[in-house]
Amino acid sequence: xxxxxxxQKKVEENINSQQFVSKPEGLYKPIEYVMELGGKRIRPTMxxxxxxxxxxxxxxxxxxGLGLEVFHNFTLLHDDVMDNADVRRNRETVHxxxxxxxxxxxxxxxLIKAYQYIANVDGxxxxxxxxLFSKTAMEVCEGxxxxxxxxxxxxxxxxEYLNMIxxxxxxxxxxxxxTGAIIxxxxxxxxxxxxxxxxxxxxxxxxxxxxxxxxxxxxxxGKAIGGDIVANKKTFLLINALQLASGSLQENLQTWISxxxxxxxEKVEALRNIYNELKVDDLAKEKMAWYFDKAIAALNKxxxxxxxxxxxxxxxxxxIERSR
Length: 324
Prior knowledge:
Layout: H1 4-16, H2 25-35, H3 42-54, H4 62-83, E1 87-88, E2 91-92, H5 94-97, H6 100-118, H7 123-150, H8 158-184, H9 188-215, H10 218-221, H11 227-230, H12 236-244, H13 247-258, H14 264-278, H15 280-300, H16 306-320
Antiparallel strand pairs: 1-2
Helix pairs in contact: 1-3, 2-6, 3-4, 3-8, 3-16, 4-6, 4-7, 4-8, 7-8, 8-9, 9-15, 12-15, 13-14, 15-16
């Protein structure tokens, strides 16, 4: 009997066994570098777990899982270029270590490599898997575009934001689960319920990320608290605050947002106090819980190995119950 931990180990072993570097090395070395940065390998792990729900032969989902992980890392590489980020997982980003042109071209190559891995799945399900992957890849790009557009907008609505994070983050997790289910031989209803499970967990996870950026413990959160506040990033918390604030609270909020020069700690504390007064922290927790409940309801409808369903349930709880 497999566990989620077994699948994480299997994924890591398979990634480590890949030969990412060939000629010209200037194109492929950055790919190897990105893939060696690590991460939780959530998407390929979910792909294998979903396959195992319906089939004991999880190895037939490995290639698809690798493709999903390469694609995910491709999006991070290009995100770093667009965000002009210097560090990813405590190491230099590709465009810093090499240059921007290299990052763009190596990222393009990663997208092609992702398709090459996906194309190795069994021919009986290949078209269905490829169609799902292509649809998802386009949705992730749409989500990124919305995210960039929101930077210059002051009228972003909550529903717009939720759709953006659904596209940018949640659909890839959902597609990973559905891909594994398709490869494992699940019926369409079970595959769609797993997609719904992944989509809602992805939404809850991103809302938790927004929340922890303000209220988290830096040691357990893994990055500096208040990064979204400092950047005036449109999050669930800020959008709700902008819509709910009035009078002096609204003036105070707008003042902090408009400042070009400020003390980081003061701004983070000021925004946190505004959020507390408006109780947008409670709104975030309620929305997280709502998405989590929707996810578990979808998972409960899925047929398959009960032991793996229990593992997926616990995995979902671990994802959104990260320590504050």
